[in-house]
Amino acid sequence: MSPTSPTAGNGTTSTTGGTTMGSSASGTTGNYGSDSDMALDDTAMDASGTRPASGSLKANLGQAGSHLKQAAGHAGTAIKGAASAAGDEMRLGRANVKSELAESALSGIAAAEVATAAGREQVDALMDKGRDLLESASELIRERPLASFGVAFATGWIIAKLARSGDK
What we know:
Elements: E1 14-16, E2 19-21, H1 35-40, H2 53-143, H3 145-167
Antiparallel strand pairs: 1-2
Helix pairs in contact: 2-3
């Protein structure tokens, strides 16, 4: 049998050209080592110079695992960068909101001051008109006291009549 025969490495004794290959106490056969060593050896090649399917699969899985580790590391870095950028954007946004609120408050205060000033001007104008009206009424009463008394009496009588008719 050749070293690549199905019975090689299975713990049985075989003869090849007068040389005996037998199993030893450690479970090894020939130059290949134990069955478990052969299954774990990624670089073991068969007689045709190609890797067995299990070795190729293990190598590919190992590479996939290392690529996944690298991808996870890059994803973690990207997430940390995104979180940092988001934090920076939130701080900038918060500063902008505070600034806009402060400017809004200042504008509101300025508008209130303008409204107060305009209100004072209106009150002053009304007070001046009221004073002018009282002065002109006082002047009219001084010039024509009897006519003023008659107008005041007639106005009082009309108000009294309207009050009595509203009670009935």
